[in-house]
Design a protein that fits this description.
- By secondary structure, the protein is α/β, with parallel strands linked by helices.
- 38% of the residues lie in helices and 16% in strands.
- α3 runs parallel beside α9 and α4 packs across α8.
- It starts with 8 loop residues before the first helix and ends with a helix.
Length: 369
């Protein structure tokens, strides 16, 4: 039997190759700027329209998007250095690193034992007078926003920042993730639902002040050429990537729709009692960047799937609190749920590189485990 791949970028991107070559040649012949040119500006406007947000700024990658966004909040006086920013323990290291890189203090909070989505109850446990912001990660493509959370943050004057690296196209009550906070950050890493052919990221905000400050920081701290009013870095989305992303953005809803259909089949038909399926929140439409299950013997299940030519992956086998550079600085008793879950969570294949016949086959194999 042919191996079912977890991800197949060659198959996903094949249909865009000729169109990309056409637009790339057209762009090269036109003699346009390769950095901060018309292709980047066009994509930023297209993404802003898609998200229904006022402004989008392309960056070099998703980590830079978060870091630059945080730095802009410091420049504008919304935050000051060493302010505490809450972030969940079950996420990719970039979320945590962005806070530290901006000169702020990350404070980890735990999972609710019943869910992979952040809960207000766990957030409340780590809030202090120094807490000034929450970096909410819409992990696996699940929306993590709800009315209770919004109300709690507002009443406690805690800024909401959204990490949408895995959730482009996810919604809560009809509103796109990335439009609830003071700013949001996106990643176009090749394996994402909207993936580039290299690195890329973006910042979204309804505030022109935040976006213009981010634009300056990302361009050596310059609001005007050769005039550097603030300390900055070099992080711009290449026009070469922007061309490819503009083409793929047209199909993003089709991609997400295929993932939702596959996830729905998994949800309805995986009946193995040894397995628990990670679920989203009510009134959400999720983009299912990943389809995550929980099992007590993950290694055994992975071997079983592999023996049936089905590839699966682990996201993330080591929590932030267990990373070498931080593990001696945290109270592990307060993070036990996420540290335990990291040993049990497994991601199944999902995406437009798969057909429903393959999804049904994966489901049948899991049920036979």
């Amino acid at each position: 039997m042919k191996k079912i791949k977890f991800l197949d970028l060659k198959k996903i991107n094949k249909k865009y190759v000729l169109k990309y070559i056409f637009y790339l040649l057209k762009y090269l012949i036109s003699g346009g700027f390769y950095i901060n040119g018309s292709a980047k500006t066009k994509f930023e406007k297209q993404l802003a329209n898609y998200l229904n947000i006022n402004h989008v700024l392309g960056t070099g990658n998703g980590l830079d998007a978060l870091t630059i966004g945080f730095k802009s909040l410091i420049e504008l006086g919304y935050l000051k250095e060493n302010d505490e920013i809450l972030v969940q323990n079950n996420t990719f290291i970039a979320s945590y690193n962005s806070i530290k890189l901006a000169g702020l203090k990350p404070v980890l909070f735990d999972l609710n034992i019943k869910s992979v989505i952040p809960s207000v109850d766990e957030i409340k446990k780590v809030v202090s007078p120094k807490t000034k912001g929450l970096l909410l990660v819409h992990l696996y493509g699940f929306n993590s926003i709800n009315d209770q959370l919004i109300k709690y943050l507002k009443s406690n004057k805690i800024l909401l920042i959204e990490d949408c690296a895995q959730s482009i196209g996810s919604c809560y009550k009809g509103k796109k993730c990335g439009t609830f906070g003071v700013f949001s950050a996106f990643s176009f890493y090749p394996g994402k639902n909207l993936g580039a052919i290299g690195d890329g990221g973006a910042i979204g905000s309804n505030s022109i002040k935040i976006i213009e400050t981010c634009r300056a920081i990302s361009n050596y701290g310059s609001f005007k050429k050769y005039k550097h009013d603030i300390f900055g870095v070099n992080s711009r989305l290449d026009d070469i990537q922007a061309i490819f992303l503009s083409i793929k953005l047209r199909d993003l809803e089709k991609e997400n729709s295929a993932r939702r259909k596959q996830a729905e089949y998994y949800n309805l038909n995986i009946k193995n009692k040894k397995i628990t399926i990670a679920e989203g929140l009510a009134e959400s439409i999720d983009s299912y960047h990943l389809f995550v299950i929980k099992t007590n013997d993950r290694t055994k299940l992975m071997k079983f799937l592999n023996s049936n030519n089905i590839e699966s992956l682990i996201h993330y086998p080591i929590t932030i609190s267990d990373q070498l550079f931080i593990k001696n600085e945290v109270d592990h008793k307060k993070l036990v749920n996420s540290e335990t879950a990291s040993k049990k969570l497994l991601s199944l294949p999902i995406g437009s590189h798969l057909n429903m016949k393959e999804i049904k086959l994966i489901t049948d194999v899991i049920n036979s485990y």
